[in-house]
Specification:
GO terms for molecular function: ATP binding; protein kinase activity. This is Protein kinase domain-containing protein. InterPro entries: ARM-like, CIK-Related_Protein, Kinase-like_dom_sf, Prot_kinase_dom. The protein is an alpha+beta fold. It folds into 4 domains: 98 residues, Phosphorylase Kinase, domain 1; 151 residues, Transferase(Phosphotransferase), domain 1, CATH 1.10.510; 119 residues; 140 residues, no CATH class. The protein has 23 helices and 13 strands. The strands form 4 sheets. A 5-stranded antiparallel β-sheet has the order 1-2-3-5-4, with helices on both faces. Strands 6-8-9 form a 3-stranded antiparallel β-sheet. Strands 11-12-13 form a 3-stranded antiparallel β-sheet. Helix 6 runs antiparallel to helix 7 and helix 18 packs across helix 20. The longest helix has 28 residues. The protein is elongated.
Length: 516
Amino acid sequence: MGNQESRISSNYNIKNVIIENDYFSVLEAVSKRDSTETVSIFRYKNKLNLSEKQEETEDINATLFKNAVQRIKTIRHPGIVKFISADIYSESPAIVTANVIPLKLVLKSMTSENICTGIFNLLKTIEFLHQNCKLVYNNICLESIFVPKNNYTKWLIGEFQYSIPINATKNESQKIIDVIPSRLQPSKDEKEDNSFYRDYWLIGKLIKRIIEPYTKKKGKGTINWAPLQQIASQMQDTIPQNRKSVTEVINEPFFNNNIVIEVLESLRNYKIKNEDDKKQCLSILPGKLKLMSKDIIEKNILPEIIQKEIINESFSDILFVELFKDPLKGNTLIREECYKNKIIPYILDMMKLRQWGTRVVLLKLINSYYDAIIRYDTNNKNKEFIITEVLVGLEDMDSDIYLNSFSALTKILMKTKLKKNDNGIQIINDKTNDDIISNVGSRKNSAVNDKPQSATTEKADNSLLSVNVLINRFIIPHFIRMQISDDKEKKLESMKQVVKLWKHYILVEKVRFILF
């Protein structure tokens, strides 16, 4: 097989062939080093004999493969399949990428909104290739578009073998154009010269193919496909210069007036916004989400929201206060099953990051999500983890972390159901006070807490931490500490939370007195 080729078999276990294209076989494989890492392998379908030096007589297939590797390796864009590695000089060369699945295999299961946003993403990627890379892609078809398994709105391209720089010489470009399959050739009579017009035609053909089942359906759907059908026809004009460009299509009302695309574009451009624009984006987002169905939010919007970059802004609670709300207590954006499978794991994962902005948001909103997490916490591990993180915050030097941790602890106590042990003492199942303090360790400031803890000792879940201990050892000392400080905000907020806690227990005692 050759030394280079053996690297694929030595590093990955091939699971199955996903799709056979003109040039590549696309395989799914699992890393032998990490069984949780799944990748895609684009393997050339025939054997090649490549050399490091490009010779004048080099086989066209060798040229195409080197072209494919060079482009996917050097061009980085959210709409391009992520390159990992390549085996080039082997008998069966291959490219290893992030795990993707062919669009063709999942197209029928997509919603209309998935398709609209997917087409828009593809247009943006091709526009990037044209404007920034000066590259004609020449391979826009259903078989060469891929999606991540968890996000069908993100359409990706990755097979660059037919791509040609716009400034390539006539001979260079014609050499590749001559081997492009006829189904990817705009003109039946003669092959068009190298130009962006070729990609316009291919996009028009792809759009027509994708939306054809929807245009034939009787009755009104959620989307009027007629304008897009007309756009596709304009992109396929027989006169290349008359074809509607990618940029013109992107700015068409069909896409500009689509609220799902508007929200997705705003989220995807979030990183490059300044702080004021970020706040504006997050403040109007809940209102826009309420105009969408739960299905659209869960399948289209949620994957873009639950990223660590967004929640790390301390003001992002203006968005997450709605998203983290318990489905049984008024969350109208997503279904309970989605909350359980997506939101709860996301919250717990974000807590482990211990970044300042993220911690502030999660502490502020603990009242929203705590009940839901406990409801599905069959072994009390998540409850122990959350309480430990809150108590850690009471040892933090950062004022915001400290104050929000105190507030969060009072809210947890008000949500804790009291019960009696054999001695009649009010308790809750949790870790002992000494265990909690040992987990807190020496983490005294938020700068240290931005780094994950290396390891914590797990204790058996048979110890008890009484509510009285939480109040006497944590609430009362820290309340006194804040009341004697010069910080007016701490004084007022801590007083407000303690009064709420006090009223809560008075009410609990009244109910117990009436019942017993």
